[in-house]
Structures are given as C-alpha cells and as structure tokens.
Amino acid sequence: MAILEELRAAVVDGLAKVAVAKVSEGLAGGIEAGTLLREGLIAGMAEVGQLYEEGEVFVPEMLVAARAMSAALAVLKPHLVAEGVPSNGRVAIGTTQGDLHDIGKNLVAMMLEGSGYEIVDLGVDVPAAKFIEAIRGGANVVAMSALLTTTMTNMQSTIEAIREAGLREQVRIIVGGAPITKSYADEIGADGYAEDASSAVRLVKEVLAA
Ligand code: B12
Asked: Which of these, 113, 124, 126, 169, has the minimum number of CB atoms within 10 Å of its CB?
C-alpha cells in the first residue's frame, strides 16, 4: 500500500509533518492503526536502526527519525488504544541517580516505543525507589542508563534494592550508556546490555522471551 510505504519513508527521512499527515491519511482511508504502527512506524525505525548499525546514518539522523516517529505515534495512540493493540511489554526507563544525561536514554525510549513497547519514562537522576515503584506499577523491564563513571555504580545499588524489595524475579533489568560494558552488566547482575538504541530493541525482545 502506497501510504504505508510513504509513512515508512517519512520516518526514515525524519519528516515529522509528513509522517503525521500519512498517519491521518491512512486512518481516514480505513487502514487499521495496528497496521500503520507495524508496517509504517516500526518498519521505518527498524530500517533506521539497521542503517545506523551499518554506519550509513549517525545519532543526529536517528534522533530526527525518532522524533518523526514520536510525532506520528502521538496521533496514532488513541486509535491503537481503541483497537486494543496489545503492548509488547512495559519498560520503565531512567538515568541513574546523580546523572543528568538523557539524550541516549530518550533515544532508547523512542526506539522501544516505536517498536510497540509501553514506556514509563522516569526521567533523569532516578533513585532506586522510583524504579521499584514502577515495577510495582506493572513494568516488566527496567532499563537503566548511566553516562558517568561516578553514577554507573548506582545501577548496582538499584539492582540490589530491587532484590531486597523481593521484586527481582518479576522483572528483567537491562543497562546501557557510554561507560557500560557487557562484563559490567554481568558483574552487577543485570539481565542484559546493549550498546545502542537499535540493539536495545533486540535486547528487550530477547530478555522478555528468556
Ligand atoms: C551531552 C553531554 C552532556 C550534557 C547532557 C545533556 C543531556 N540532556 O543529556 C551536559 C552538558 C548537561 C553534560 C553534563 C555533564 N557531563 Co557530560 N557529556 C555529554 C556528551 C558530550 C554526550 C553524551 C550524549 O548525549 N551522547 C549521545 C548519546 C546518543 O549517546 P549515549 O548517551 O552513549 O547513548 C547511546 C548508548 O550508550 C546506548 N544507551 C544509553 N543509555 C542506555 C540505556 C540502556 C538500557 C541501553 C540498553 C542502552 C543505552 O544507546 C544510546 C543510543 O545509541 C558526553 C561525551 C560522550 N562522548 O559520551 C559527555 C560526558 C558523558 N560528560 C561527562 C561529564 C564529566 C559531565 C559533567 C560531570 C561535567 C561537569 N563537570 O559538570 C556533567 C555531569 C552532569 C550530571 N550530573 O549528569 C564525561 C563523563 C566522564 C566520565 N567518565 O564519567 C563525558 C564522557 C565527557 C568527557 N569525555 O569527559 N554532559
């Protein structure tokens, strides 16, 4: 269908107004919201993720594409709810306590949202108690971001606090951010690590399937 292809291309090219217009056009033409989400928005973000991994596009292009996706998703959301399109899972995401960096965290959140996950964005400087509250509120995944060597250790204390609250078994925990490595994630007892936003989408799918 031409509209789906145009919507996908608008996301890839980061054209927010075109993406919004295509979603409205699609809905008016009777295309289901779930189809617009899967074959337009998610397909577009998947392509951007692929291009990023191949070194064909960089962070700025990815951010612009993610913004186009978010703008179109805002229009689509009430229709998705009305159609009852199931969410793939609920992800509570935040930057660890003491850390104010949020560009990467926002990118991960937008990619996940574009891939059909419900996002609870806890913001920056997030204490363990807030993550715990989100798990009690139904989050299946906790995603923590840290950009400072001084705040990455708060990931470990947050995981510890989740364990002490007796909630560790009911949630998957993933971590990321420039100073984080796979071996650090293993050391602190996280379920997974991804180095960028597109691999974060794959990671969430994997940990939820495990
Ligand atoms: C922009 C920036 C800032 C901005 C932040 C604005 C904002 N709203 O985020 C401002 C100016 C506020 C800032 C402040 C500071 N910064 Co600063 N900052 C940066 C900078 C230049 C870029 C970070 C960024 O946005 N990268 C782009 C994004 C897209 O990449 P990313 O965050 O790595 O995210 C990707 C992946 O890591 C991954 N990812 C990220 N999170 C997650 C989470 C999960 C779950 C998963 C799976 C994946 C994932 O996916 C993302 C997308 O691909 C870095 C340098 C660098 N090269 O990283 C320094 C840097 C991180 N900052 C640094 C420092 C020291 C500071 C300050 C302490 C400076 C100061 N003296 O005041 C303060 C700290 C403030 C605080 N308490 O947090 C140092 C950290 C050094 C260290 N080893 O700890 C760096 C490395 C600069 C340097 N070389 O010295 N900073």
From this structure: 169
